[in-house]
């Protein structure tokens, strides 16, 4: 037993009783007994340090000798209350600055985290970089809102629209191509009207009677070949077979001289109405062609052509007067 571990025991024997082999208190160097000397059992009085002096320290229990329980904070635990960010093992568990958690910062895609303590110093959390907001279901500009202010203009082959963000996916409400139908519309948005729709348009044949000098136009090829007429061109131009929005009737009219002319006037400009040859446009449109109208007073004949060159020749050399564009055909 070391010097610091020696214990002083005082015997509870009567003074002067030497018969027990230990002698009296006087025989122990005249030391005077103090507390409990009259008792019958041994009493702990203190410890003797290396110099032989007795101390008055209280006894250290096992529980007081033991260090604090290991309370390192886990992912779901609060920061360790027994540890301080100082580069030391404050709680004596063999770990330095443990269980102090993490720092969080930033919103949206800028959200970031960092250790609360690094190298004995408080950690610093820096948000990630922000960017312009786009429609993707994320908070790109890190303001706490998702996909805000992402409405924009858009278009398709068929025209303009507005792009909105729906569930992180951009959606454009611009009109989309449809199957082509006969409606004087470009349904499939390819720049052509009513193409390849059977029966939508009909051809007008051009004929001429050299005896009377009359030019005659009809959708009936047999009629174009009878009554002294000779077909100059089959399907010279097309007209719509039925009425549609944006179209007007192209009327076949009979003059008092027995010759024909054609007009968009439903009353045939005061002459006899024979019927509707078809339906045409009064404005230039996709695939349309101007049909020039001319008149020769000497012949009493109305002449119609889609050729500007032929029109000019008829005016300069054949005695016709231009009356402008009669309509637009196809």
Structure, described:
This protein is mainly beta. Among the domains are: 1-61, no CATH class; 201-329, no CATH class. It has helices at residues 62-65, 221-224, 308-317, and strands at 47-48, 54-55, 102-105, 112-115, 117-118, 121-122, 152-156, 159-166, 169-172, 201-209, 214-218, 230-240, 248-254, 260-263, 272-280, 289-296, 301-305, 321-329. The strands form 7 sheets. A 3-stranded antiparallel β-sheet has the order 7-8-9, with no helix packed on it. The model is unreliable at 1-76 (pLDDT under 50).
The H-and-E topology, N to C, reads as EEHEEEEEEEEEHEEEEEEHE
Tally of strands: 18
Structural class: mainly beta
Mind summarizing the main beta sheet? 3 strands, antiparallel
Provide the low-confidence segments as ranges.
1-76
Gyration radius, in Å: 57 Å
Overall 3D form: rod-shaped
The helix content, as a percent range, equals under 10%
Q: Average pLDDT value? A: 81
Strand order of the largest sheet: 7-8-9
Query: What portion of the residues fall into strands of 2 or more residues?
Result: 25-35%
Topology:
Blueprint: E1 47-48, E2 54-55, H1 62-65, E3 102-105, E4 112-115, E5 117-118, E6 121-122, E7 152-156, E8 159-166, E9 169-172, E10 201-209, E11 214-218, H2 221-224, E12 230-240, E13 248-254, E14 260-263, E15 272-280, E16 289-296, E17 301-305, H3 308-317, E18 321-329
Antiparallel strand pairs: 1-2, 3-4, 5-6, 7-8, 8-9, 10-11, 10-12, 13-14, 13-15, 16-17, 16-18
